[in-house]
């Protein structure tokens, strides 16, 4: 199985698929081989904590493309298959799976899009039945079955976007929900305390309970060996029928580390998404990419990053001059709140907030200001403005705060 014109993609999720699609759009007519650990066809992850989990959509809505698309575009999709090693000197990968030969597979260019892996809870009882994580469609299917009829006591450990979205979905399905966090305010790392408290207030109004600044000591089993509660600190056990662990994710870098690529909070890549090996590239959750606009590295685990970074890596693999400078984007839906966020997370810690609209009325745009410039923006229940917000960020102008706050001043003019 050798071909001097073979591009190998390790990882069969959105970043890998979007890269393969771009290769074909750009006219690449060589061999494309994509390896995925899961046995199911590639899918996107946002519905897993939103509409699929809530029972509003079925699994087929999450697939990136129909199954026939891969054959129609001559993409060899090897599912249920793991790439176990990369031989950079020989330009080969070794794989393990039922549907592929054991012989090493040669590559001309290699893209690593292995995504991220949920961080595991390290306490007694963390592996008993009833403890859930949410990363895969299999995870979401199991959790959906538990939540759909309501009436369960659900403990969510962690208060990032996944934890908060699952909390909202579980509560809307009629479950009793409590969020256990080791800080005072949820979402602080993502959007800061002021806006994190905004989302906490929304959730609390819908009956979600927050156990703040709390350390989980144990998942307590029932006599039947399933989840019965969560022991926190010195307090008595908090009753729970099931636990959702949402304490973040780590980039899946084991393959890169073993092959000697440079790794630090993900695979280090330049603005063209090239690793320390000129024939190996990385995209999506696993890539810690240099962003040319801010002169710093950004590793983003959001859908839009995978969607856009994959094609950029593909163009670099084809020898094009690429500088990936997309503004990071994320969105979230919680109860009646819908939001879009665009901006540079490494910069918002030192920024100050300005508002257009009134957060108390739950229709507003928040702007993070640093040195008179907008470095991030979040529109909450205000729609069709995200491109304008990104335009302000991209232009990097000194912006008058009064004009920024004035709804009569068009955002396009700032």
Describe the protein:
The protein has 414 residues and is α/β, with parallel strands linked by helices. It has three domains: 180 residues, 3-Layer(bba) Sandwich (FAD/NAD(P)-binding domain); 117 residues, FAD/NAD(P)-binding domain, CATH 3.50.50; 78 residues, FAD/NAD-linked reductase, C-terminal dimerisation domain (Enolase-like, domain 1, 2-Layer Sandwich), CATH 3.30.390.30. The chain has ten helices and 26 strands. The protein has a five-stranded parallel sheet. A five-stranded parallel sheet has the order 9-16-10-11-12, with helices on one face. It has a five-stranded antiparallel sheet with strand order 22-23-26-25-24, sandwiched between helices. A hairpin with a 4-residue loop joins strand 4 and strand 5. It is globular, with a radius of gyration of 22 Å. The chain starts with 5 loop residues before the first strand and ends in a 9-residue tail after the last helix.
Quick recap:
The protein has 414 residues and is of the alpha/beta class. It has three domains: 180 residues, FAD/NAD(P)-binding domain (3-Layer(bba) Sandwich), CATH 3.50.50.60; 117 residues, FAD/NAD(P)-binding domain (3-Layer(bba) Sandwich), CATH 3.50.50.60; 78 residues, 2-Layer Sandwich (Enolase-like, domain 1), CATH 3.30.390.
Instruction: Label the structural class.
Output: alpha/beta
Low-confidence stretches: none
What is the mean predicted local confidence, pLDDT?
95
CATH superfamily of the largest domain: FAD/NAD(P)-binding domain
Question: Count of helices?
Answer: 10
**Reported CATH architecture of the largest domain:** 3-Layer(bba) Sandwich
Strand content bin: 25-35%
3D shape = globular
> What is the spatial order of strands in the main beta sheet?
3-2-1-7-19
Radius of gyration: 22 Å
Using the coordinates above, name the CATH class of the largest domain.
Answer: Alpha Beta
Largest sheet: 5 strands, parallel
| Total domain modules | 3
Indicate the CATH topology of the largest domain. Answer: FAD/NAD(P)-binding domain
Percent helix, as a range, is: 10-25%
For the secondary structure, the number of strands is: 26
